[in-house]
Amino acid sequence: MTSHTLNELLAEGVRGRYILVRSDLNVPLDGSTVTDDGRIKASLPVLSKLTDAGARVLVTAHLGRPKGAPRGEALPPPRSGPAGRTCRLQGHPGGDTVGSSAKEAAASLQDGEALVLENVRFDARETSKDDAERGAFADELVALTGDNGAYVDDAFGAVHRKHASVYDVATRLPSYLGDLVHTEVEVLRKLTADTQRPYVVVLGGSKVSDKLAVIDNLIGKADTILVGGGMLFTFLAAAGHKVASSLLEEDQIPVVQDYLKRASDAGTQFVVPTDVVVAEKFAADAAHETVAADAIEDSSFGAQGIGLDIGPDSAAAFASRIKGAKTVFWNGPMGVFEFEAFSAGTRAIAQALTETEAFTVVGGGDSAAAVRTLGFADDQFGHISTGGGASLEYLEGKELPGLSVLDR
Ligand code: ADP
Ligand code: MG
Fold this sequence. Notes:
With 408 residues, the protein is of the alpha/beta class. It has 14 helices and 18 strands. The protein is 34% helix and 17% strand. The strands form four sheets. Strands 5-6-7-4-1-8-9 form a seven-stranded mixed beta sheet. The mean pLDDT is 92. Bound molecules: adenosine-5'-diphosphate (ADP) and magnesium ion. Residues 204-206, 210, 229-230, 247, 307-308, 331-333, 335-336, 338, 364-367, 388 line the site of adenosine-5'-diphosphate.
């Protein structure tokens, strides 16, 4: 891929130019309180590089899937940001993202200032399947940049979407990879081409059906795939074992059986847990015990038992595979880590990732949240991916519209 980077744009010079930046500001909310501002903080370096260089920055982003119109609150006064930079937030008396208030606010922007436009998803054209509708919205966004504008995509979490602010604007303006997108692409490339071996992939999470396409594409690429989380029960069932009341996707059993068969021909080894922590019910304080993975129904809870974590033997075996690897990709918690009693498997994997010499990548929203809530620091890992769905689609081998449009 030969895309132009932010550094190239900065070298061209941006003083006085309107630069449209697509950021990922899609933070988790509890009511109207931001519960994790990680994505906002991660977005600041690119915005600062541009404002420091004298650009007039127009930031687009989405937040959730809003229904109805913006509330049209009064414009807050321009604010001095953390580093003394002026950042304006657009108010919405007219109730749209590219309407008169956006035009006025953009026109009054000074060199070195940034304006955050309203949530692009308030405009239905942003996500429209109709090229002309999306194009019309993109035209209005691009019009805000005057006649010497440029576009920077810094929203890796949205590159798998063919949306106006991600895709269509890039067909209309000289376009550049923001640092966040650039880093993600470099990392993901290391996981798909010329990967350092042994390449160990750890997959968990809730549903195997969410991850099938990734598994499919990793067969023949990964040396070892360690299977944990809710999906492990479909693997156990595919091997003919009973899983009591654990999460099981029966319709996926034949698919998993096909993977197991293809993997052995392709030189990829699936490793499924040998022991499992089984609980009486799905609850933080549920009674639980560790049993052999092929004897889940023999636990004290019989057919009621629910497997909520991998057992300690499996965690140790997985950890030793991770320590022997050169590249590790991890997606999906090993158990219901949200409950302390069932977090040991996930903790053991995170710990092993911090101890291995391998290049380590953590992908997936819940996996990233898990390592943080379990007390690990981001810099203990090679890379924590910011875009859950986008990184998985990249590893599935899909074309990502937001990236291919930047490829020239
Ligand atoms: P990611 O967002 O990292 O891709 P997923 O969304 O696939 O991960 O899955 C995360 C969820 O999987 C967590 O909320 C966790 O509680 C759940 N999970 C893990 N193991 C099990 C299990 N054995 N049974 C039910 N849910 C599980
Ligand atoms: Mg998730």
